[in-house]
């Protein structure tokens, strides 16, 4: 029966849409929809054509491969058509395939070659007398683009073959692809240069190979695996595919080490499962596996359908990408105060999981990817990684699409949002008050080098916050035995110990207290510098950014963090609460110039990884005591401070006989500079 008018219309629409997306993908290397979406359109059209054979007209995309070559390249006629592969999306599709070919061949338990389906682009390489004479893209399967000059720049593709028993003229088929690592680096470089990034390694590979300037291709990290052949003298072919591949390998043509020969469809499934479990760890992207009959005579018996051989099939993995709409962009506050824009999506299934949110990382990323509220976007969910938006599709943008603007005040607590110039992360400055940061703030406040409140472990902090027994660190000092004994699993003795530790912590030092506040980038060393410079809390609170920068080693970023912190009314409330709770300290000791700056005239080189300090902190410590911290060792170096894996600087210091300090000796020297010579071990070569 002929198809009804609505079915006809739908088929026509599908043909048009698929044709359009073919050009976007194959000619422009800039697809507008996720691959899974494209597959769905194609499957729908195939199903309609199966049901109504009169719809299967000449020129239907189901009968064709790819798209005609772009005009910018000269054309190459393929001596043997470059076909595509049929897809299996389910176990059922695959058993159907197996049944079909077993019936036609009249044999069960067939032998297959199996290998990853690389996500790159198909190329044909023609060798004459062992020399690469032509390279072409697949194009529409009959006519491809001449990319010989570009292809010659690929290290993986031999310009001249090893050995000499190759046919006079023959053609290799395979996939050019961009390994994941190279793709990441290429995009990072593009980002740095303010250039457009590629959405995925496939587009990057295609965009890099289909270049008018071979020099550009030469600088792109492209790789190649051969997976078959085109033109090849029939009388020189061996019996099996794997023998052909073994020959190619000897001639220096890269073949995929993941290629295996398996027996029967069950082993195909096992291979599929194994590869799927290793998908994330492979150095290149794959979108499934390909099964091909191993026996070449069987292939000939089966032959070809319009666009694909009957003897092979691609078994696709669940798609990692899908197209959907951004309905809103919300901002989440992390436990350290970082504000992350999150895209709220129309629910879409990606790799079998429904995705409704995707991280957008930061404002720069939102603008760089030009993602607006209301946009259609491609989302990606690879393995267990948090879903992310790969790219927006501005061509499909509705008029009412709106730009994302980072809020000026924290959505969790209303404190000011800070973005430091040159940094991409926006942060809430209400560290002491913000509910999103409570947990970290309390844990840090209680830690050993801060207020040193023994017995206030993570679990207890969780309970206190969950039961709303505390909201801020100031509330800790209102806890009593009675309240604490109501908590799960807290024995009376532990409760008593905690109250004791809280009481003891009321008497502290200004540096500890400043460190305990958890102001961004104010570590132990910086807290001490600030305490020494400003001497009391009120003076520090009042200092403007310029004044803050007069302290040794306080740059504009730290000054900005400190200044903003003390401008948040909520933070000041908490500070007041702490003062009211009786937190106090002795005035900072007066110090003479020499006592304060005992390292004047001395130069330190810090190398290797230290345990309790970052190298930056160690350098700050040296500066705060009047010394210089240098980057390289010379005869003028007074001490070298060596952590783990110190490298060549230590060797040089040893050679020059410069005193070497380990971390403990360095810290001892900082605390008691007079002990200097006694605690150093002068380096000798051992
Ligand atoms: S065999 C007659 N093996 O997938 C075609 N193709 O969707 C025989 N592809 O055009 C192709 N990895 O570009 C084969 N290991 C592999 C492959 C592979 C990727 C590509 C190839 C082909 C496309 C079909």
Query: What small molecules are bound in this structure?
Result: 2-(butylsulfanyl)adenosine
Which range does the strand content fall in? 15-25%
**What separation lies between the terminal Cα atoms?**
93 Å
Structural class: alpha+beta
Mean pLDDT: 90
Q: Low-confidence spans: pLDDT under 50, at least 5 residues?
A: 681-686
CATH superfamily of the largest domain: DNA ligase/mRNA capping enzyme
- CATH-derived topology of the largest domain: D-amino Acid Aminotransferase, Chain A, domain 1
CATH architecture classification of the largest domain:
2-Layer Sandwich
Largest sheet: 7 strands, antiparallel
Number of helices: 26
Shape: elongated
Q: Summarize the amount of helix as a percent range.
A: 25-40%
Report the radius of gyration as a whole number of Å: 34 Å
What is the CATH class designation of the largest domain? Alpha Beta
Structurally, the number of domains stands at 5
Written description of the protein model:
The protein is an alpha+beta fold and 686 residues long. The chain folds into five domains: 5-63, Helix hairpin bin (Helix Hairpins); 75-316, DNA ligase/mRNA capping enzyme (D-amino Acid Aminotransferase, Chain A, domain 1), CATH 3.30.470.30; 321-396, Nucleic acid-binding proteins (OB fold (Dihydrolipoamide Acetyltransferase, E2P)); 417-585, Orthogonal Bundle (DNA polymerase, domain 1); 594-675, Rossmann fold, CATH 3.40.50.10190. Helix content is 36%, strand content 19%. The protein is built from 26 helices and 24 strands. Strands 12, 13, 14, 15, 16, 17 and 18 form a seven-stranded antiparallel beta sheet that branches. Strands 2-11-10-3-9 form a five-stranded mixed beta sheet. The protein has a four-stranded antiparallel beta sheet with strand order 5-4-7-8. Strand 15 (376-380) and strand 16 form a beta hairpin.
